[in-house]
Amino acid sequence: MFTTTKARLNILNKKSIQPSSPVAQTTTTTMALTTTKTKRPVCSFQSSLATTLFCVILFTIPALLLLHTPPASICNTFSTSTTTLFSGDLRSAEFSWNHLSFSSHIPPPVPLKIAVFTRKWPVGTTPGGMERHAYTLYMALATRGHEIHIFTSPPHEDVSLINTKNTNEPIVHFHEDAEPGQWRYNKAWEQYEVENQNHRPFDVIHTESVALPHYKARNIPNLAVSWHGIALESVSSSIYQDLLRRPDEPMSESFNKSFQVMIPKVLNEIRFFRNYQHHIAISDSCGEMLRDVYQIPSKRVHVIVNGVNENDFREDPELGKKFRSKIGVPQNASLLLGVAGRLVKDKGHPLLYEAFAKLIRNNKNVYLVVAGAGPWKTRYMELGSQVIVLGSMSPSELRGFYNGIDIFVNPTLRPQGLDLTLMEAMMAGKPVMASRFPSIKGTILVDKEYGFMFSPNVESLVEVLMDVVAEGPKRLAQRGKACERYATSMFTAKKMALAYERLFLCIKDQTFCIYP
């Protein structure tokens, strides 16, 4: 809920009040503290050491990622039946909680008060993946009757102009003394402490990635962190990006120097991640990485795959036809591929750009629609009329996009990532083609009927694109039906919210850790 700051309404855009002020006794406020900025560790490496570390990572990280693919037996079992027969302590479950059955028809046994720390909260603008995840999750939990408090950075919009009539929504606290979008965890923590001391204490604290730094999270037993990206993933992503260089193209100096920063960052993460009591992994392979590489005890790692709003993303053929007509897809188009998200290098757009350029040399009726913003938007325009480039799209606009395409492409170069766009496309009844990474192979494309995987290089992607063209829209539509059934059983906002709810209940009271 977004409101103004009168009489403890749901947007608490607070002014600093001295503790001695009588107003502080009746109004939720923040206390003024000096901002303390976290400094990155500065490490000095000799050239030989940096080279050695680079070589170690270059050859070990890809192998490490391959080794951390979830066991085939688990994937195969869940591909046919998304509900597994499990009983016992949920904390011992090393698979995704999305495979378990939690009833949405039964109210929660205890209404929880949950504090959420997130760098940004979507207000009017087109949100990124992490913001969309947080918004979808906590709107669903608020609907379940839980009291949700969001602690976040100031928005770019004037929240007083936003119409707010629905009371069953999260309470959003925008901290002050910062530019719009600038996150200051210490200011947010001050707001949390005021709310926690002056009203009912919080049952659970949830931080999206390192919104709350590890030294603040240390020794807080009821705190959980969701990992949307880790430094080890950034290292491996940089390697895959560099592998796309042409043979005659030199390695960039910035790429070489970046390892002097990333290597100590990985080591620091392995050391400080254990300060967080509960870890939520967004994919099965991420859970494996946290247990085996980051050395987090298994019972403190919980896999809950992100979900998307099932009302926003569903199959709607008529909407798809209108979308194609609106953006000018020719009637003689034999195939329409789609890609959406940030148009940046680590999302694999150099890969898709090169592959599609090769594909259309001999396929004049195959089209690609690009939804998103970023540096590669202009590059895609260079490919001519067979590429239709759109800007960023809201979730409601994306519904038409997904229904209009024949297949969704995700060329990501982030091995541990699990983009919401994959789930949204499947929910709308579309097959997907994506990079062959453990996170995607173990959670999304667990059955060959759901789509295609390719190695993160141009040759492999071109080969798969040719296979897709050969199949054609009718066969792809059959695949899409299977995708929709799987996605609605695994990736809905309701499914995700019920899993988080059970975890938070388990954190509050261990009796709720026993399933069923």
UniProtKB/TrEMBL annotation:
InterPro entries: Glyco_trans_1 (IPR001296), Glyco_trans_4-like_N (IPR028098). Residues 127-310 form the Glycosyltransferase subfamily 4-like N-terminal domain. Residues 335-477 form the Glycosyl transferase family domain. It holds the Pfam family Glyco_transf_4. The chain crosses the membrane at residues 47-67. It comes from the Eukaryota. Keywords: Glycosyltransferase, Membrane, Transferase, Transmembrane, Transmembrane helix. The keyword Oxidoreductase does not apply. SUPFAM superfamilies: UDP-Glycosyltransferase/glycogen phosphorylase (SSF53756). The keyword Membrane applies. This is UDP-glycosyltransferase superfamily protein. It comes from Tanacetum coccineum.
